[in-house]
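Entry 0007
Protein: DUF2911 domain-containing protein
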Amino acid sequence: MACNQEKKETKTILENSKTETTSQSPKKPLSPHTSTMVMIDDAHIHIEYSSPGVRDRIVFGGLLPYDAVWQAGAHMATWIETNKDLKMDGKKLKAGKYGFFVIPNKEEWTIIFNTNWDQHGKDEYDEKEDVLRFKVIPKISEDIQEHLEYKITKTSNTSGNISMSWEKVAIDFPFEVTN
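Output (structure tokens):
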């Protein structure tokens, strides 16, 4: 009986310590949800994403394989919304909300806008739902960008630049507001 009593007391102590631990301040998420946006004339461009950290990992060509679709963030697919048509790489992206995906590679990256913006990762990604694809050349740095970061920069009254940087890689591409 003494052994059973001891087990019950130990279990109670463990349960109480769990309660105390959970009442402490919550841990910061490893991939916090964030966003960036810009107004160019009357065009509103908005990007929502989860921002993973490098955490001493080799990201591109390691954690994320080359030549495979990536949701360009953590958890849910990154999405971009615009209330005006945009022109990128000589092609039109109609006003709307899009999943933003990339295919990283050492020499060039494929930028993808997909109609399915509300999905976990790339679980439901279907190339048939792509509305715009084009290539960009990545820039490699010696400095490490610890957390994935998107920026939208206004470059004129009708144009801007979208950039993404993480680990030692950055990509960017210009756009124009067309209506």
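Curator remark: The CA atoms of residues 149 and 165 lie 5 Å apart. The two ends are 81 Å apart (CA to CA).
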